[in-house]
Design goal:
Cofactor (chains A, B, C, D): Mg(2+)
EC number (chains A, B, C, D): 5.3.1.5
Distance between the termini of chain A: 48 Å
Helix content of chain A: 40-55%
Radius of gyration of chain A: 24 Å
Main location (chains A, B, C, D): cytoplasm
Largest interface: A-B, 102 and 102 residues
Order of helices and strands of chain A: EEHEHHEHHEHEEHEEHEHHEHEHHHHH
Number of domains of chain A: 2
CATH architecture of the largest domain in chain A: Alpha-Beta Barrel
Number of strands of chain A: 12
GO biological process, one term (chains A, B, C, D): D-xylose metabolic process
Catalytic activity (chains A, B, C, D): alpha-D-xylose = alpha-D-xylulofuranose
Number of helices of chain A: 16
Oligomer: homotetramer
Chain lengths: ~450, ~450, ~450, ~450
């Protein structure tokens, strides 16, 4: 098989002074930060769909990209050509992981049988490519939203046969993920939502989705899959409203179906902002609820109301995000997956490298800045001090449920309390963060 | 006591042909719709704060309104003057209910003792005014967000004394609400949220808020209060982020603290839209989760990113909202409270009447349209038909948990299923709705 | 040629009581309103692209629609089949107008010569179809944004050859529009904008666009085309930022290039809302600037940040829009073009009819309501009264430029003026509007 | 007069290693960057209103701040106390400039005469304070939006007496600004807009505003004021819609009234984002139109839909903004004014210093990064290369108006042109920027 990215060699760390566009200037995989290597912290993954499947189309125009692996021919040989290109890319980029949807890997063909067959054959091939390159699978997933059959949803479809078709894909994709040693299995409910309430039974669709998720978890245990099951929240697009709106919404759903210990969230920056939250908020919320699983690293455009999936390029934003992740204990099975695509105008093959290299260096810088924040964790100190009052007798009793509303009111009145506001010191804290970032 | 609104008499139903600006043209309280009077369906309430306390100020300018009841003097006599004006207004407007915050009713004074004393004296007076006029209390609440002591939150404050102060106010406001025969008690966590994550411990603040809500529920039972405890979701403003973001978020919180059967939501239209949802969505979601309690009827401005609290004026929007409420069984303890204020430029006393009268007629029209939708419920029929497949054997088994993921996949493959998308008929359904609205 | 919509006959006015889904219940083309027929007022047009070209794809999935006219074969016979279906639809729907992009009508082929040839042949065919059916062209336009060559813009492209290609298309599309008796020619600068300022020279691109527009206007006069040249504002999508952001921005651009008397705007409801304006605002602004040309009738989703192009279904919104249009003198060459598409899930052929029929009835209702508003124009009376002070001597002098800042200040001080705010009566005005709409 | 900020001394540059919270770590006023000192480049100003007038109130609560200069007493002595505190602050902060509204400086009293008198007396005092401290005035302005008389606008008010009152204030504020050696005079049309179109005559109000601006410009020349007249765009808030929406809108307005060479814009970051633009966009747009005047440096909250006026803290955002300013030639009369306020919770006096110090260091860092970008201006080189085709014969002829649409089309067809898209290299450019910022 011919090299596709012949002009680009292995991307290596060359340090900040390097003028080589195809080198890392900050990401040094083996450099130890807070007791782990950068590679172990970041667990970087390239996304099959964004980089190898998307043709550069948008709603107002067709594909712009002319990729060597965009070929006609029989499904398997086309798929293998794409896989060869993909693994060449993963290897040259020096990332330890990749991620895929079943239908990214190979055409689903024209029948359910053909789908099973094609995907099984390509799972073999991926296994072989993994073995050859050492690249591992961060997560697999099934695309149960693109095919017209899913226009009205997958698990939440009004037609139970569509539910069954989706179940079949997820069954196969979980199997493949397990066999390929995937660290997680992801579910993105792209069309689990509605276009109009006028034809939608929210309660019924929730029950369908809840049962579906339980089936997934039951199957995981039966399969002996040790990875994490992840739901990826998004508020809308392509649907008017998606049920997995944000982390807090997913949490309520998980509680309802007894799944809050079984399923975690895969948070995407651009989905967070579409839901009206900062990326940091979504991460901190998931950490506080004990459901942070993994991250889809990208960014949206602050002025555009759709998922732009741009490569992350803000060290400032990523430092705060990484700080929250590290404070939450860091990744276990999760990692940073680049759910990012080059712009439609970035039509050269080398743009694929430049997009990833820039983003990896941003994450590396963010990791180093966040590590500094934690090594001398002034924010945590100030936070502890701020809430110190709750460590007193009264605070403890309240939180322990030993005080009734009336008890508290009587205590307050009899003591004639008159608490005053104290400064929240936001500007001071922001200055501290900038100092960590800019030295 | 002198009449304040001397130019306006009792507002009565005069029918669509009336040219009287101070008459209802659609709201006929005693007219029976779907087996109940319009008054029983709508359970209309005027809000003390919006109509009697807000001076017409905004962030860029002070109050514009010169109300006869804006006086200086001792707290109780000022408060009585305001109450007299308010009950004159409620009575003339022919609404059965009103709502209040503790601090709307009377100044909180300069100490916790003074607060208790002032509020107790005015509770007596409100009781007397209710008896005289027959106007009832839809809900009471405590303002635990305006006073500087609450700048960093009430129950979620870093200082437990502030928590205690809030508890004292809620204790007193619940007592007053109970004594005044209130149908509900509301909690709006206006500053239960954060300005910056840099100084905020989400997990700790959630625990504080959870315990606070449990205390409120425990106290309700101890008190023998039969009304409903309501949380009012809002995503932000004044905070950057409020914990009670939307109904789905509140549901997750309630489940976490075992309160999902004890607390319902008071949904406000403008809060729904600030959270990125339609008003109809928030209602339908709350209904589907079994937590719809009451409604704050208003509207936002679709182009402005803050809470404008305008009087509802869209029959189209309110018809869909009312349809969802009626489909959910209608109000039990809840009602439509006008959490609406006249514009800052609407500085005349009579604007207060015109705002309410127009909005009441909008709700009356919406009720009649929604009732027609339900009398011959084409939407429900089409919805049932759409999901009919789930009533088959396979669908039932899936939902009953009798099918594993593998079972379903094997069934799908062996039957070589190939389900097709069928039309969701959104445009047809929208035409139906318009037909109900426009005849 | 075979009938494509065999199940649907000519759509006729049957009045509000009709149960026929394929009848108008409010749109009675020959009914006279304010001295003109409804058909003359509304000048309804169906859009070729939305209804005959879009396959039901979105960013997350391919086409869902299986249209009889989606065929493979030689470009001209495919295009004729589509035109036959389209004109059958236009005729059955009883709309007087249609609109097209050059590339909607026929494939642009594989070279500039083929483009010219294909389009010329289909222009002949359209001419023949127009003659046969009596359907007329509201406007034509050229698609200079979809083809990959336009990825970085058309007139604003960094490559002047792309500018030339776009000029060629516009030249041909203007010629075709002129020959087909089109009432207007439209320019939508879909990719005249930028993805990133980092590679964009705003000043240079503005100069390119300005010269392009001048060339279009010069050519119009040379051609003897009597229709109106229209620019369609949109703020973004597919670009991050589009230069024709909104009406006010377009106005500044036109002034800069001396085109404000030559070019008007084609306002689209959904583009208005994406730009942060109400639809009514954009119309009123264009009217006040003397540049209102035509309307793309649709609606967006208030919760979604992209162009959803839904059929208009709000009589409330459309009444205010129509009121502004009528107050501005009504359409001359413009009309209401349905820049609206059925939802991706609305996959049946008949959904195409239902979408249009519902929307046409909405516009008919809006026209009737707006006409009532104008027949007894209470809003205008109150507005005149509100500004009456400016008709006094002082006001006239100020506006006539006869008072300097100092004059005015001296007059104010010496008269010790102390003007007071008077009520803006917004709620009263909103009640009046609802009374016009709901009787 | 007593020192108010007794705990804080003169803030000095101590370099990045300093642990002193009250030192600059990056802003070294005398350091030369691109041929000018940092002080000369940045022209920093503190804003009277935000720092000395705002009491820490918001829509949901009263002031939190207990400032030593918030006193009762006669207007002049209170105003002098505030001015003393302000100039102590300016001096200690080492900024060369301040800015004010007339009514920030002193109460407007109870009559127009009192306003004139109070303001005149305080202008004397400010002149004395300037002389004593060396602090200069970047700009003055008049508050013609807070007083209830301006509820319906100032120049656009339906009442010409209100116009006259506003004219009086602007006359006086221009006079004071001139006398105090102000470098600019600013107009922010806070309520020049509308709440509802139902009571608004857009055309008439535009004429009023246009004439007002002409009067201001005429007066400037009469006065001999050499500074720049600036309009500050904002899209909304407090109004539903403000006429000076954004730079492009202001430009169209200026062209309409022949003022485009007389008036420039004062761009505020948070106003840009409320208008749906990036801060960089607004600056680049104003530069490209030749109307960039000055900057109100602050930031909004990306998730909140109102003007939060936070201190700028993003070096990334400010670097791009500063790059555009420098590319546009840098400030002449303008500067960076901190239109920023500490958070309501930041209630300590020292928070005022910390907010400014952090922001000044952010601007200093941004200046240094932007200077590096310009010293070796890779972006400009790549941009020149990208548009190089336009320097050819054909491109020049087109822009010079020597080619008609038909000429171009014929040339394109006869040459059978087939231009291809080339990569826009966005990711590469973003990597370059990050390299400038992060080394």
């Amino acid at each position: 098989m011919a090299e596709v990215f012949a002009n680009v060699g292995k991307v290596r760390f060359e340090g900040p002074q390097s003028d080589n566009l195809f080198a890392f200037r900050h990401y040094n995989p083996d450099e130890v930060v807070l007791g782990k290597t950068m590679a172990e912290h970041l667990r970087l993954a390239v996304c099959y769909w964004h980089t190898f499947c998307w043709p550069g189309s948008d709603v107002f125009g067709p594909g712009v990209f002319e990729r060597p692996w965009f070929k006609s021919g029989d499904a398997i040989s086309v798929a293998k050509g794409k896989a060869d290109a993909a693994f060449e890319f993963f290897s040259k980029l020096s990332v330890p992981f990749y991620t895929f949807h079943d239908c990214d890997v190979v055409s689903e063909g024209h029948s359910i049988g053909e789908y099973v067959e094609n995907f099984a054959r390509m799972t073999d091939y991926l296994e072989q490519k993994q073995a050859e390159t050492g690249v591992k699978l961060l997560w697999g997933t099934a695309n149960v939203f693109s095919n017209p059959r899913y226009a009205a949803g997958a698990a939440t479809n009004p037609n139970p046969e569509v539910f069954a078709y989706a179940a079949t894909q997820v069954f196969n994709a979980m199997g493949a993920t397990h066999r390929l040693g995937g660290a997680n299995y992801v579910l993105w409910g792209g069309r689990e939502g509605y276009e109009t309430l006028l034809n939608t039974d929210l309660k019924r669709e929730r029950a369908q989705l809840g049962r579906f998720m339980q089936m997934v978890v039951e199957h995981k245990h039966k399969l002996g899959f040790k990875g994490t099951i992840l739901i990826e929240p998004k508020p809308q697009e392509p649907t008017k409203h998606q049920y997995d709106y944000d982390s807090a919404t997913v949490y309520g759903f998980l509680k309802d179906f007894g799944l809050e210990k079984e399923i975690k969230v895969n948070i995407e920056a651009n989905h967070a902002t579409l839901a009206g939250h900062s990326f940091q908020h979504e991460i901190a919320t998931a950490v506080s609820l004990g459901i942070l699983g993994s991250i889809d690293a990208n960014r949206g455009d602050p002025q555009n109301g759709w998922d732009t999936d741009q490569f992350p390029n803000s060290v400032e934003e990523m430092t705060l995000a990484t700080y929250e992740i590290l404070k939450g204990g860091g990744f276990t099975t999760g990692g940073f997956n680049f759910d990012s695509k080059v712009r439609r105008q970035s039509s050269d093959l080398e743009d694929l490298f430049l997009g990833h290299i820039g983003a990896i260096d941003v994450l590396a810088l963010a990791l180093k800045r966040a590590a500094k924040m934690i090594e001398k964790d002034t924010l945590a100190e100030l936070k502890d001090k701020r809430y110190a009052g709750w460590n007193g007798e009264f605070g403890k009793q309240v939180l322990a449920g030993q005080q009734s509303l009336e008890d508290v009111a009587q205590w307050a009145i009899s003591n004639n309390i008159a608490p005053k506001h104290v400064s929240g010191r936001q500007e001071h804290l922001e200055n501290i963060v900038n100092r960590y970032i800019y030295g």
